[in-house]
Each structure stands twice: as structure tokens, then as C-alpha cells.
Design goal:
- It is built from 5 helices and no strands.
- It has helices at about 20-30, 40-95, 100-135, 150-175, 180-185.
């Protein structure tokens, strides 16, 4: 393709690793050989490069995703309280205690979380597989490799975030202005 006949751009050799130092020394003496690379050296170098860069970005992604999960949990709890405010106040006026009225809010948030966790995990699997397929090149492939802990830790964090958000918003049920909420027109 370069219109330079007689040129070889690459040669892939398989030989006994015991002869590697002699082969390297002899290849350096030949002026027509520009470079020699070994598969294990290239793999070690690539692994080192990827592990150094991916460690920082992994930590960055974990921090951002944790902040987003906590924010979404708190936002969902606040929106649910705002939507249920009139109903919760009605329950309180009818004689239900704070605990019983709060149970409606807590149960709804728990149900939302139980539905959202498996759907989120399935979307995460799909997106991870898709993303790994987009990084494939002729030289490298990045397989999708995971384990149960990779999904258990985020699920536990989301559960904890929803629990904390629910407890913070639940205090809003105790502070409802029963008369003001019931007087307001929708």
C-alpha cells in the first residue's frame, strides 16, 4: 500500500522464552528492525496504565453516583411528602397518630425503593455491557466482568440513603399545620 516493495511492517513470532535475551540482542544489531515488542511486556504495560487511570476515575464516579443517589432519595421523599401532605393531615385530624400517618409515607417510599432497585440493576447491567462493547478495538477488548458485591454495595447504599431521607422527611409529618393544610384548596 505504501508502494515500497520488499518492506515488511510487522512479523509475529512464536519462540521459546529461554531464547528471548539472545533474540533481543540480535534484533538490536539488525538495522532494518526498528522495534521489537513482546506480548507479555505490552500486556503488563497496558494493565499498569489502565489500573492507574481507572482507580482515580472509579473513585470519582463512586463519589458522584453516591451524591446523586442520596439526592434522588431525598428529593423523592420530599416530593412524596408534598403530594401526600393533605392526605396525611386528614388522617391526623381523623384521629390517627403521628406514627400511623407516617406509616403511609414510609410504606410508599419503601415500595418505590423495592421497585426501583431491580430495575436500576437491570439498566446498570445493560449500560455496562453496552459501554464495554463501545471500548472494543482491534487491539483491545474489555469484557464485562462483575460479581454480586458490585451490585450489593450500591443497593445497600441506596437503601441507607432512602432510610435516612425517609427519617428526615418523616419529621415533616409531625410538623404538619393541620388546619392550614386542610384549609388550602387544590
Amino acid at each position: 500500500m505504501l508502494r515500497e516493495p520488499g518492506h515488511v511492517t510487522a512479523a509475529y513470532l512464536l519462540f521459546d522464552s529461554r531464547y528471548r535475551p539472545q533474540f533481543s540482542a540480535r534484533a538490536k544489531e539488525l538495522p532494518r528492525i526498528v522495534a521489537v515488542s513482546f506480548k507479555d511486556n505490552a500486556r503488563a504495560s497496558m494493565t499498569k496504565l489502565l489500573s492507574q487511570g481507572s482507580g482515580f476515575f472509579s473513585a470519582l464516579f463512586v463519589v458522584f453516583s453516591s451524591l446523586m443517589a442520596a439526592g434522588v432519595a431525598f428529593s423523592a421523599a420530599r416530593v412524596t411528602l408534598a403530594e401526600q401532605e393533605r392526605d396525611l393531615a386528614t388522617l391526623r385530624v381523623l384521629g390517627f397518630g403521628r406514627r400511623e400517618a407516617s406509616y403511609v409515607l414510609v410504606a410508599e417510599l419503601g415500595a418505590l425503593m423495592l421497585v426501583a432497585l431491580p430495575i436500576g440493576a437491570a439498566i446498570g447491567v445493560f449500560m455496562s455491557r453496552w459501554l464495554m462493547s463501545k471500548f472494543e478495538t482491534d487491539l483491545f477488548t474489555f469484557p464485562y466482568v462483575t460479581n454480586a458485591a458490585a451490585y450489593a454495595r450500591p443497593a445497600l447504599f441506596v437503601t441507607f440513603a432512602v432510610l435516612v431521607a425517609t427519617l428526615l422527611v418523616r419529621r415533616g409529618v409531625d410538623r404538619l399545620d393541620l388546619v392550614g393544610v386542610l384549609k388550602s384548596r387544590d
